[in-house]
Amino acid sequence: MSGETVLIAAFSARALAASARRAGFRPLVVDCFGDDDTLALAESARCLPARVQVGFTYRPLLAALESLVAEAPSPPIGLVLGAGFECNPRLVAKLGERFNLIGNDAETISRAKDPQQFFSVLDDLGIPHPETRLDAPAHSDGWLMKRVGGSGGLHIHTCPAKPRPDARRYFQRRVAGEQISLMGLVSDKSAAFAASRQWTNPLPRRPYRYGGAVGSLPLDEDLEARLIEMSLAVSEALSLKGIVSFDYLVDDGAPSLLEVNPRPGATLDVFDDASGTVFKAHVEAALGGDPAALLAAQWHPHIARAAAFLYADNGPLSVAQVDWPEWAADRPRPGSSIGAGQPLATVFAEGDAVDEVQALCVQRLGQLETLLYDTSNKKGAQQ
To answer: How far is CA 12 from the centre of its chain?
Structure first.
């Protein structure tokens, strides 16, 4: 597998490109940011605009991928899709006609993200989940409104008293609990799981915006067994393969499944190792192999690790030349203009205990925010 090329497309492709590099691949990347570290990791790269609500547009994306293939030193083994495609299974289907998809196909993504199909599957399996409906509840108190195929928590709102009809929305009763996610590496032959705890970075109008994750999270043995049992049942029912995340709320030991994201997600930064074993296992699973055997042979569980998103919440800024700390990634190129509230960078922390690591990660968010805004203000003053 050493030196083989692989196509990667995602809103932000840095984490996948880094894992692919560690695994010995040469990543050909399309994403929306074109950050410095992403470009350094990529064999070749293209930067395309995309909106969180609708994802990529087919023609520009296809042209970008085709140009990467034309430049590639060897034919790519396939295309890995990250965040940005679960809202548009039709686009995935079109891409699947042209490229070998390393991961879940359009039909699987549709079943996992369409609320009517997905929660019907959970009901058939007897898996607990919050009450969910397609039409607005008569009384909105205690209900959330979500967008089909949404990601990053930006699509989740407190249900308004009289929501406007929208086929892209569904409604879910708010339930209490700790946010626990299982990252699964699944195939027809085997599966392996690792647990993380997630937290939010709320805004007044975006109360469920994703903040970060920390793992590996130690769990009660019975709870861990139950979460794995439920995730395996869903994986089999939906024919999932590769990296998949299962998002649960756990209240007093009782888990409730909120959603499944059938693609690599933010916890790749939490669980990958120096050899890119998670990316290798994703490819192995997509090719019908045995990811659990690969992980058992090569994956060395690391100490606790956290990864969190920094947003431009103090207003828009133009990124100056910065001496980036080693614990920061997704580094915008100098001169990049970042809009207010937009993703700005990713921060990491490692240590012996998940609580300490999460606290350090949050502390570093503040440190990096100060650094970036201070240097941006100094640059503006000099101009």
So the answer is: 9
pLDDT tens digits along 329-352 = 999 999 999 999 999 999 999 999
Give phi and psi for 107, each to the nearest 5.
-65, -40
* Contact between 228 and 190 (Cβ < 8 Å): no
Per-residue pLDDT of 306-324, as tens digits, reads 999 999 999 999 999 999 9
Decide which of 86 and 38 is more confident.
38
How wide is the angle at C-alpha 109 spanned by C-alphas 104 and 115, nearest 5°? 155
pLDDT digits (tens, 9 = 90+) for 192-214: 999 999 999 999 888 999 999 99
Q: Are strands 44-47 and 79-81 parallel, antiparallel or unpaired?
A: unpaired
Of the candidates 259, 256, 213, 216, which has an alpha carbon nearest to the alpha carbon of residue 362?
A: 213
Contact of 88 with 55, CB cutoff 8 Å: yes
DSSP 1-47: -TT-EEEEE-SS-HHHHHHHHHTT-EEEEEESS--HHHHHH-SEEEE
| pTM, entire model | 0.95
Burial class from Cβ neighbours inside 10 Å (0-12, 13-18, 19+) for residue 373 reads middle
Between CA 254 and CA 175 the distance in angstroms is: 12
Helix axes 89-98, 58-71, angle to 10 degrees: 30
Q: How many residues does the chain have?
A: 383
Nearest Cα neighbor of 84 from 33, 28, 144, 156 is 33
Determine contact, residues 242/186, Cβ cutoff 8 Å. yes
Picking from 271, 195, 274, 187, the residue whose alpha carbon sits closest to that of residue 228 is 195
Q: Give the side-chain half-sphere CA count within 13 A for 162.
A: 0
Q: Of 106, 40, 98, which Cα lies nearest the Cα of 69? A: 98
In single-letter form, the type of residue at position 169 comes to: R
Axis crossing angle, helix 277-286 with helix 14-22, rounded to the nearest 10? 90
Q: Measuring CA to CA, which residue among 202, 183, 208, 353 is closest to residue 271?
A: 183
Asked if residue 216 has a cis previous peptide bond (ω within 30° of 0), the answer is yes
Name the phi and psi angles at 101, rounded to 5.
Answer: -80, 120
